[in-house]
Design brief:
Number of domains: 2
Number of strands: 3
CATH superfamily of the largest domain: Tyrosine recombinase, N-terminal domain
Strand order of the largest sheet: 1-2-3
Shape: elongated
CATH class of the largest domain: Mainly Alpha
CATH architecture of the largest domain: Orthogonal Bundle
CATH topology of the largest domain: DNA polymerase, domain 1
Structural class: mainly alpha
Radius of gyration: 29 Å
Number of helices: 8
Helix content: 55-70%
Order of helices and strands: HHHHHHHEEEH
Largest sheet: 3 strands, antiparallel
């Protein structure tokens, strides 16, 4: 079986010649996989068939923790490196350079879910003003919808699926139904209540 440096050169040649990867992409693969081989060398692993699933998992841990020579990687950067390692081992098995793939069960870390960015208050006010500026029946309806979205944090699908009975104007709450039939009761502000009242009394009758 091939030793690790030779296997890496063979894989990089494959990426460059047969898959035709761009120079920048190839450089990223080379950098990530050289770091991987350095990790294996420090662990005393010299041959492909000496690499275990635990060795690959240990590399992932090292990526996330960092060391004196490398800063800790975030989930996205660590995931990219693990994908490169998985591709390397998969190629080595397919090309007959190794008998087993120790990386197949090691999953890249999931990227952190980012909270959606909120619109600046000035933008929200501009949207609300635009919806109500024309003074038409549809504008009254649109303003009520926008006020509900802004005032409750509802998803669009939740807001458009509301029934009149879902809104408790006395307690100032609304019952929202999300994915999978999940329900949540959230407070409604006075501006949203006023906009809904305006729509129900002056706008909705004209649309029926």
């Amino acid at each position: 079986m091939a030793d690790l440096p030779l296997a890496l050169r063979t894989y990089l040649d494959h990426l460059a010649v047969e898959r035709g990867l761009a120079a920048n992409t190839l450089s990223s693969y080379r950098r990530d996989l050289r770091r991987y081989l350095e990790h294996l060398d420090r662990a005393g692993v010299r041959r492909l068939d000496d690499v275990s699933e635990g060795t690959v998992s240990g590399f992932l841990v090292a990526l996330r923790e960092g060391d004196a020579d490398h800063p800790a990687l975030g989930s996205s950067s660590a995931a990219r490196t693990v994908v490169a390692v998985r591709g390397f081992h998969k190629f080595c098995v397919a090309d007959g350079l190794a008998t087993a793939d120790p990386a197949s069960a090691v999953r890249p870390p999931s990227p952190a879910r980012r909270l959606p960015k909120a619109l600046p208050l000035a933008d929200v006010e501009a949207i609300l003003d635009a919806a109500g500026a024309a003074g038409t029946t549809l504008a009254t309806r649109d303003r009520a919808l926008l006020e509900i979205l802004y005032g409750t944090g509802a998803r669009i699908s939740e807001a458009v699926g509301l029934d009149v009975d879902d809104l408790d104007r006395v307690d100032g709450t609304v019952l929202l139904r999300g994915k999978g039939g999940k329900e949540r009761l959230v407070p409604v502000g006075s501006y949203a209540l006023a906009a809904v009242d305006a729509y129900l009394t002056r706008g909705r009758p004209d649309l029926e």
